[in-house]
Amino acid sequence: MKFENCKAASSEIQVEGMRSVTSVRDAANRLSRTKYMASEVIVKYNDLFNMQIGNLLGGMKATLDTLPESYAMHQKVNNVPLNEWIKQEVNERVFFRFLQVYKNKENYLEAMKRQRELLRHDIMLGEYEEEFANKLIARIFPNGIDKFVTSFACAYNTTFHMIANESGVQTAITEPMTQDIWRNWEYFWNPEEKEYRLDGEFAQFYDGEEEFSQELDDGNRLIKINEGVYEALKNVKRT
Prior knowledge:
Layout: H1 3-65, H2 69-72, E1 76-77, E2 80-81, H3 82-93, H4 95-101, H5 105-124, H6 130-140, H7 145-167, H8 176-183, H9 185-189, E3 200-203, E4 222-225, H10 229-234
Antiparallel strand pairs: 1-2, 3-4
Helix pairs in contact: 1-3, 1-7, 5-6, 6-7, 7-8
């Protein structure tokens, strides 16, 4: 083969090679975009699933907590007491996922204390603002855990007050995504805590009507509400 022919053939090979590289690169980019889109779909699906499960368990927990003890004690799933079964499901979607974020117990406990204080400051120093609350809760409960936690809290709150209203029991209404989660902090962070309640001490939102410059200690700007409500609901006669 003459030199000119070899040179021409070499040029053709280089051109084809570049085309092949470009084709492979384009294919890789398309595959990457497809994987990214698939990942987005998976994340959205997981978020939706966690929200649905949180909604189901939160409503179930509120219903159980307002039943007379004689009824509640007999509610079971696969021979496991319902309250314990619900907590197991919560641990699976919250506590055990936290362990993937915090590698040791000391880091976990320190984060628990710090994040609750962050939430308390948000409640006490400002009015409720949904978009900011969503971002704050997502920061406190990372990796999609927030979707389950907020759905659980909202479902519990809605179901609890609906049952109270139908039973003729008056209740004070709290904000589930901030006040309820702050009040029931241990329920999500502590794998042994099985009690979730809407009575007792809650952090209050700052209403702007007074000067507020004092330190936020544990006893500051807390309010006790819904005292005796659970007992009243448990004593309502069911037809």
